Amino acid sequence: MFNDIGPLELVTIVVLAVLVFGPDKLPKVIQDVMRTIRKIREFSESAKEDIRQELGPEFKDFELEDLNPKTFIRKHLDSDELGLKEIRNGFDLKKEMAEVTDAVNSRESDSSTSSSGSGSAGSGRIDMSKKPEDPGKEDRPPFDADAT
pTM of the predicted model, to two decimals? Predict the structure, then answer.
């Protein structure tokens, strides 16, 4: 329950409790806190049991922690029914990006040598080094500020 409390924090809490409640009342306060925690646990366990009974026998192993999306996904993906681990291990993003970069670079070098040698008018490729035509020349419908 208190996995993230270190020894220094625990000592600080004990010293503050002694200062606030005093050494005489501290055991009574600890008993009251423990009783309250037990009641809360009993209430939550009874609520879980009521939910399981209402859902029926097919949900007898149902846990409320499974409703957390992270837990739900982790539970269903760890079973690896779909073979996701094999896909994940077989996919190397750096290798794929290097292959794409090499392909693009070789294609650019091929187009530059072919355009300088034989001309690229008939090749069907688009020259990306040219600037697009002026957008003002296009026929756009008139803008109506009142319509918007």
Answer: 0.40
